[in-house]
Design goal:
single chain; alpha/beta; 58% helix
Length: 337
């Protein structure tokens, strides 16, 4: 293993279309900066360049979907990569007290992060898991499209003045979207069924109150890309379901709310299951009712149920045990709070 003095530190600021890359000099001198497109061909060119600088340690932020293809390519090329939480990276950059912020400067600071902070290597999911992740997100987009078209059709049919041609077009579009969604759903389920680990996790998910055949692949698609050793607290932050508040001195006491800085797709996938569980699961219903009795809103209670479900799923995956309505052992502890 190379010593820390032999390692080249690299920061990559990721956007939808470009990658700003900074390489810290091994001695006194100016950092090297380059810009690449954020696509497959440019990823190959970036990897070839980084191999000339080996050994390297690369840090980039988790920027929604835009960093995943890059991270996957770097991992397959056996380039050491750390994917850092954007909130943690932002705090590090703010601590440098810079007055100017650009993509290139952010890449500089991420390179400094690689040099100064503890390096935690990112572990790529399997090829099958990565494909399921992509399919799950595509299914989610098609579901939103289906809902939008359905709403437009409902509005069109609500008035007698809408031409039949418009109504018929919307009906055909609705049939098309549903057919395509089912094709994606079928492919996703076949991939999950062919992978023992994912198939087992799907089985555990579907034993959870509120989580059914439709919602379980969407939830699994977001969870399988997380590190295997991630804690329940890390899952909560990843979903943006961790509570946030603002307090300053004796006069500023902001209302507590969820951070919403995490993965909106996972929050969305958990919302309807939480609504169902809040109604039909006795323990979760009692938990939510207790919050409402303590002057929380109904929506806040549902969000709290989302968080409880996520913690329970983490415990179920960890112990490889299905949901038990009597809540023994770890699951009981998770839900008791």
């Amino acid at each position: 293993m190379p010593s820390i003095n032999e390692v080249t530190f690299v920061g990559i600021d990721v956007s939808a279309k470009t990658l700003d890359v900074t390489v810290l000099p091994s001695a006194n001198g100016k950092p090297k900066r380059r810009r690449f497109d954020n696509d497959g061909a440019a990823h190959t060119a970036l990897i070839l360049w980084l191999n000339l600088l080996a050994p390297v340690r690369v840090v980039c932020e988790a920027t929604g979907v835009y960093h995943l293809d890059l991270a996957y390519a770097l991992d397959h090329a056996r380039i050491a990569l750390m994917v850092v939480n954007p909130r943690r990276a932002k705090r590090f950059i703010e601590a440098q007290n810079r007055n100017t912020q650009t993509d290139a400067i952010d890449a500089d600071e991420l390179a400094q992060f690689a040099k100064r902070m503890d390096f935690v290597p990112w572990k790529a999911p399997s090829d099958a898991a990565f494909t399921v992740h992509k399919l799950g997100r595509a299914i989610g987009q098609m579901t939103k499209h289906h809902t939008a078209v359905s709403n437009r059709l409902h509005a069109a049919q609500a008035t007698a003045h809408t031409p039949n041609s418009i109504i018929n077009t919307l009906k055909r579009e609705l049939v098309f979207v549903e057919r395509e969604r089912q094709l994606l759903f079928k492919e996703c389920n076949e991939l999950i069924a062919a992978d023992p680990d994912m198939a087992n996790k799907l089985r555990l998910l579907m034993s959870t109150p509120g989580i059914a055949e439709i919602s379980s692949p969407a939830i699994l698609a977001e969870l399988i890309i997380l590190p295997h050793d991630a804690t329940a607290k890390a899952w909560t932050k990843y979903a943006g379901l961790d509570p946030a508040s603002k307090t300053s001195g004796t006069s500023v006491h902001g209302k507590t709310h969820i951070a919403k800085r995490g993965n909106p797709r996972l929050r969305s996938a958990l919302f309807l299951p939480a609504l169902s569980a809040r109604t039909h699961d006795p323990l979760l219903k009692a938990f939510a009712d207790r919050l409402v009795a303590n002057h929380k809103t109904k929506l806040q209670a549902v969000v709290a149920v989302q968080r409880k479900l996520l913690h329970s799923i983490h415990a179920m995956f960890k112990t490889n045990s299905i949901w038990n309505k009597n809540r023994p052992s770890d699951t009981q502890k998770v839900l008791a709070g």
